[in-house]
Design goal:
The chain has 254 residues and is an alpha/beta fold. It is built from 10 helices and 9 strands. It has 2 domains: 1-32; 39-253, Alpha-Beta Barrel (TIM Barrel), CATH 3.20.20. Helix 5 packs across helix 6 (147-159) and helix 8 (199-216) packs across helix 9 (227-238). The longest helix has 18 residues, at 199-216. Mean pLDDT is 90; it is low at 2-34. InterPro entries: Divergent_DAC (IPR006837), Glyco_hydro/deAcase_b/a-brl (IPR011330).
């Protein structure tokens, strides 16, 4: 019997005696487990305008969930190309914002739409994108505040077995609560990464995101296909904070 085996068995016998049984306790119980790394899920929204910008994020060599806008020139090809590299694909469903000066883009749904149109548009958007596993909202500061309208949109998402991520484009969003009430797999983002578009600011947001992940076990950040965002993610991954985090797909947090 070598020294390590002797120590493990002796420790088990001692613990068993203390518990009053005299039976050795499994050594696995006595060996402490390493603390799990905080988990970070990154979503890159607004895919579909330019495939080359999306491809820059592949250089980070970490799991990234890409959310693709429907009915754009590069929507389908982007979904196929990014999924072929092993990444997770979501539909970035356009929804009505409060500002009438902002166009949510093709495939959008509006609060004045009839339920039949909402369901048809969402269903067609999902059908047009290959390999979709979930949906999050694009814009929607007006639409996501309406539980009834969210229910009409989410009914199509649920019927296809997809999950939903509330992008929280407004603090008054009812989207997440509505999805949970419907029994869906759903989650909310924690931070937008690139409201300020310089690398140092985005790095600061990534560090904040990791702090949230340390506190709560996981955190979700949403960014956009911009060169500064890709550069910041690659720098963060190589930093001590990034090396001590586990990057995961959004579905792994549900």
């Amino acid at each position: 019997m070598n020294r390590r085996t002797f120590l493990v068995k002796s420790g088990g016998l001692l613990l068993g005696s203390l518990l009053g049984s005299g039976i050795p306790v499994s050594a696995e119980v006595c060996i402490p487990q390493a603390a799990a790394k905080p988990r970070i899920a990154l979503i890159i929204d607004d895919i579909g305008f330019n495939l080359n910008r999306a491809r820059r994020f592949l250089e980070a060599d970490i799991p990234i969930t890409f959310s693709v806008l429907p009915r754009l020139c590069w929507s389908e090809e982007s979904a196929l190309a990014l999924h072929a590299k092993g990444h997770e694909i979501m539909l970035h469903q356009p929804m009505e914002p409060f500002s009438t000066a902002v166009d949510p883009g093709p495939g959008a749904i509006f609060v004045d739409d009839r339920p039949e149109r909402i369901q048809h548009v969402v269903a067609e958007n999902i059908a047009r994108l290959p390999n979709v596993v979930g949906v999050n909202n694009h814009m929607g500061s007006k639409y996501t505040q309406r539980p009834q309208k969210m229910g009409q949109a989410l009914d199509e998402v649920r019927s296809r077995g997809l999950f939903f991520v509330d992008s929280l484009t407004t603090g008054h969003s009812a989207a997440y609560a509505c999805a949970r009430k419907m029994g869906m797999s759903a989650i909310r983002r924690d931070l937008f990464l690139d409201n300020r578009r310089d690398v140092l600011s985005i790095l600061g947001q990534l560090r904040r995101l990791r702090q949230l992940a340390v506190r709560y076990g996981s955190a979700i950040g949403i960014g956009h296909p911009r060169p500064a965002t890709a550069e910041a993610i690659m720098r963060f991954r190589e930093s001590p904070e990034g090396r001590n985090a586990a990057f995961v797909y959004i579905s792994q947090l549900l």
